[in-house]
Amino acid sequence: MAEDIDEFERRLGVFREACTIGDLNEAIEHGEWLANIIGESVNDKFEIFNGIIPFDDVFIPLSLAYKERGQKYYQADDYYRAINDFWRAENYHPSDPEPPYFLALAHQKTEKIDEAIEFFNDAIKNHLEFKEAYLNRGILYFKKGQYERAIEDFDIAIELKPDYASAYFNRGATYAEMEQYERAIEDYDKAIELKPEDAGAYVNRGTSYAKLKQYERAIEDFDKAIELEPEDAVAYVNRGTSYAKLKQYERAIEDFDIAIELEPEEAGAYVNRGSSYNGLKQYERAIADYDKAIELEANLVAAYNNRGNSYNELKQYERAIEDFNKAIELKPDYAEAYNGRGANYAQLEQYERAIEDFDKAIELKPDYAGAHFNRGISYARIEKSARAIDDFTKAIGLQPENSSAYALRSMIYTNINKFDVAIEDIKRAISSDNNQRIYLDIFSDILQKKFNLQNNQTTEGKSEALRNKREKLFKGSFKKIIGLWLGLLIIFFLFSNPQLLTLFTCSGSFDELDLNPISEFSFTAITITTTALIAPWIWQVKIAINETMVYAKAELDKNFDERFAQLGASKSFDSINMPITSISQPLDESRIFKSFPPQ
After folding, report:
1. Angle in degrees, 0-180, between the axes of helices 369-381 and 385-398, rounded to the nearest 10
2. Which of 185, 238, 249, 559 lies at a 20 to 30 A Cα distance from 166?
3. pLDDT over 90 for what percent of the chain?
4. Which one has a higher pLDDT value, 436 or 215?
């Protein structure tokens, strides 16, 4: 027994020395031996050791040694060995809130989110004012999409530490994810006030400004972020995207070039640069960037969608449809891809298939103005005017500034002879965008068609041949036909009254009472003969008039069709007038810190 006590005391001394100098492996080796002996003494096997040293004089330092070694493993990204050490640290000191906290961080690194949350719960139970635990548990709730619970944790962290910049930062990121951008900006303002050198806060605030379409203010924040961290590719990507939204495509491309130089494997930068090339109508270069993005990230939906858009611009509709098919395969609820595919079907005059895709896009995104607009075009092409008008009306309600929807609706109203509402619509289109010459042309066409209908006149520019044909038929023909009819009438009358011929020979006389009227048979014969002679002339006149009117209508309809096609195929960066919506890779999502050690 004396030898056991001597060995115990020797190891205890080594253990204490190792703890003092920070030799963690030595401390753990001897601490484990001591802990085992003490554990056995608890079971009355070696009761004598109870009196030599209190339990806590071994267990607490041993827990600390495991905790410190676990942190070293954690920092070396050796998370599984870190978890083992943190678990043993918690076992030797159950009331210490830090081992479960570190266990949570390590489980977070291994993507075991639910286990990590449970360990954060344990840490908070042991220490109700553990602000870092609240903060990091909020981050995990954020990752799980439980934003309200995340905000509750960030609120508590801020209550415990009102100057906690990280808590404001992450709460702002959560509000941004909930699309409450104004509240997000308020939190980023506070985070920047507390920590003005934090480039990430400027990036996130700039992103929220961009979501609110305040692109100039967004660019100011991205400028500041780049000033603080010149090597931050995300800031360049986001600033480039904001320039693109302002149609400053050359400046956007400059930023994307820098981002790609900093991070050559960043697929999103290629997608966004491709979108800017698309804005400059450099479609081949855009496609090259989308190809590279797909090479780097084979399942990048935006790359397929946008490449399809560029193929559409090059009138390679089948290839465009292939890309939209792939985008839909990767993301079946991608409304924009259905809209894009439908637009290409429409270009191929497969209007029924196009309408099916627009239906799906609207089902997924009921307030999708572009899909309503494009479906209206397809309905108009298959002469379903009422449905076309309904879709254009819906598009206008969702996007009142869409001048093309007013113009196209006005053309449909014109085709069904509702000229007053047509004129009202085209006037709205002109007032919204008076730089569109085509709107003035449509206005002129509407007035001309209304005038023609009301006055039964033809348009200017009808063919000279039709005019000559009509004039030739009218000129003198009517007099000749009347003369013929009168002549026939006289001849039949004379044949019925031969005594009248004596007047010409002066060889007789007659009594007017002896005159015989033209027989019913003779009168009928005259009428039939005259009608037979007149009918072809009437028919030819009718044909001439109809040909002239058809020509005039065809000429006007051709103008309308050309203008309709021109409006339906226009490609404005911010307008839904285009049949396909170009989708940029989204601004990088708001950054949210991964984890924070206790402070």
Report:
1. 160
2. 238
3. 46
4. 215
Query: Residue 96 in contact with residue 78, Cβ under 8 Å?
Result: no
Choose among 322, 309, 304, 319: nearest CA to 281.
309
Distance CA 415, CA 364 (A): 32
Q: Report which of 67, 81, 82 is spatially closest to residue 28, judged by C-alpha positions.
A: 67
408, burial (CB in 10 Å: exposed 0-12, middle 13-18, buried 19+): buried
d(CA 97, CA 90): 8
- Convert the pLDDT of each residue in 457-498 to its tens digit: 544 444 455 555 555 555 555 566 667 667 766 766 666 666
Separation of alpha carbons 422 and 401, rounded Å: 17
447 vs 326, residue with greater confidence? 326
CA 521 → CA 431, 491, 500, distances in Å? 71, 14, 20
Model pLDDT, residue 31: 75
- At 355, the amino acid letter reads I
Per DSSP, the residues of 209-231 read HHHTT-HHHHHHHHHHHHHH-TT
Report residue 545 as tokens.
């008039």
The sign of the dihedral angle between the CA atoms of 496, 498, 504, 506 is: negative
Tokens representing residue 324 in the block:
């939209």
Distance CA 279, CA 260 (A): 19
- pLDDT tops 70 at residue 557: no
Per-residue pLDDT at 244: 94
In this prediction the pTM is 0.69
- Rounded to whole angstroms, how far apart are CA atoms 561 and 553? 12
Note the helical H segments in 147-198: 147-160, 165-177, 181-194
CA distance 289 to 307: 9
